[in-house]
Amino acid sequence: MGKTALVIGAIGLAIVAIGAWSLVQPNAPEPPHFASDAQRHEWVIGTLLPWMEQFRERYHNVPRSDGEFLRWLVVATQRKRALEIGTANGYSAIWLGLGLEATGGQLTTVEIQPELVREAQANLKRAGLLGRVVTVVEGDALKVVPKLEGKFDFAFVDIGPRPLPFVEAVLPKLTDDAIIAVHRPPFEGALRDYLEAMQKRPEWLTTVVQTGAPTAIVLSVRVSKR
Length: 226
Prior knowledge:
The protein is an alpha/beta fold. The protein has helices spanning about 5-25, 35-55, 55-60, 65-75, 90-105, 115-125, 140-145, 165-170, 190-200, and strands at about 80-85, 105-110, 135-140, 150-155, 175-185, 205-210, 215-220. The chain has a single domain, classed as 3-Layer(aba) Sandwich (Rossmann fold). It has a 7-stranded mixed sheet with strand order 3-2-1-4-5-7-6, with helices on both faces. Helix 4 (about 65-75) runs parallel beside helix 5. The N and C termini lie far apart (about 70 Å).
């Protein structure tokens, strides 16, 4: 076998290995038997989420402080039907799901990449949330969201530095008392277009919440009915 063939073969094996890693993450913790939901929550927060956090940059997940804030926000405002755009590996969906489990609510989370859908489902299953509290939908959010049934009282959009088209797709699906949360990544000028657009909507009050991380959560609440 020539050197060219050997190089091509090595590259092919590397690609296969990377693909396999993305579907079966190394040393994934598997949940033990839990005697109560409290024990499960303790394991998720103390074991599963810290394990996922070592891959945060790979998946562009929110930092832990943002995840904790999202859970608190859902519980404090008693959200019941939430929508997430940008599931990735399910990290923020777990935080939201824990909050919605406390309120008796449900989360629909949308992800376009099939391999990430499978990873998110695996992680949400480990957390005991898949199917019971959280539903993962595969597809382009701009096409999926308009077809979803019913209205949502909470939306979390984590799609990168330019989320405006996705928020605009979500707006018609929101209740009059809905809350919109958008993750602001730590990039120069991130969400500038979005913030300017929301400031031009007098029916929405928008503020930036710093949780102590380099990122932030941009919150919008409706101050007048449509």
